[in-house]
Amino acid sequence: MTLMRTSYGVVWQEGDLPLARGKLELLGQSVRLDGVAGTQPTKRDIPYESLAGVRVGRSGEDRLDGRPSLVLERRSGQLISIASVAQPGVVAELAERLAALQLSGHGTEQRTAIVLPLKEGAKSEAQSLLAAGPPFDLEHTRIERHEVFLTEREVVFVFVSPLGIEALEPLLADPDFWRGAAAWREHLAGPPRLAQGVYSWERSEPSNDLLFLPTPGPGDSEGGDIFGS
């Protein structure tokens, strides 16, 4: 099975701001641009639901360094033009994937649940540990959402990420994670269990926005408009 990429090397320009270089990541709820503009670090998280349109720019003002670009039209904010630093076909690939994500309102999310069984009477101690917050920095992971549920006999940690359980691998390699996990040891009635997701339902909301995407046109490897002039 071929895995679809979630990270791309790109250059981009937001309105009249300086050209930036770095990477584009397709996250669960947003597209992230992370890199440097000149010598200054820059980062943009653009929710899929905030996109009014996605298109391939072929005109001179849409191109970056003469290369076809992906143009993100936002409901608020300036246009963002993005070009690949690798194969030119990446722009068309991104246009298709972002259009699908924008129409659905989110990316492909996978939920991972870890269940910790508690000793009898350990709920209050567990609540105190949870009140201190997670022993890791969520902002520097590929985790899109994290929730914790507490009962009298167990704690359930839920992680949501397009990478599924792979998103937890950096945490397992972090010494701070294991130092925080050690504080739970005396309150556990058994080893952690991994819960398998078997059913999920989400209400779909119809979109009132129309999205016009480019289609392949003669002599244009990045595609063209359906109705060309």
Can you describe what's shown?
- This protein is α+β, with helices and mostly antiparallel strands.
- The chain has 2 domains: 7-107, PH-domain like (Roll); 110-195, Alpha-Beta Plaits, CATH 3.30.70.
- It is built from 4 helices and 13 strands.
- The strands form 3 sheets. A 7-stranded antiparallel beta sheet has the order 4-3-2-1-7-6-5, with helices on one face.
- Strand 6 and strand 7 (80-84) form a beta hairpin.
- It is elongated, with a radius of gyration of 22 Å.
Predict the CATH topology of the largest domain: PH-domain like
Rg from alpha-carbon coordinates: 22 Å
- The CATH architecture of the largest domain would be Roll
**Lateral arrangement of strands in the main beta sheet:** 4-3-2-1-7-6-5
Mean pLDDT: 77
Proportion of helical residues: 10-25%
Distance between the termini: 40 Å
Task: Tally the structural domains.
Answer: 2
> What's the name of the CATH homologous superfamily of the largest domain?
Pleckstrin-homology domain (PH domain)/Phosphotyrosine-binding domain (PTB)
Offer a quick outline of the entry.
The protein is α+β, with helices and mostly antiparallel strands.
Write a concise keyword list for the protein shown above:
single chain; 229 residues; alpha+beta; PH-domain like; Alpha-Beta Plaits; 2 domains; 7-stranded antiparallel β-sheet; 4-stranded antiparallel β-sheet; 4 helices; 13 strands
What are the SSEs and their pairings?
Layout: E1 7-14, E2 20-26, E3 30-37, E4 40-47, E5 51-57, E6 69-74, E7 80-84, H1 89-104, E8 110-117, H2 123-131, E9 145-150, E10 154-161, H3 169-172, H4 175-182, E11 193-195, E12 215-217, E13 220-224
Antiparallel strand pairs: 1-2, 1-7, 2-3, 3-4, 5-6, 6-7, 8-10, 8-11, 9-10, 12-13
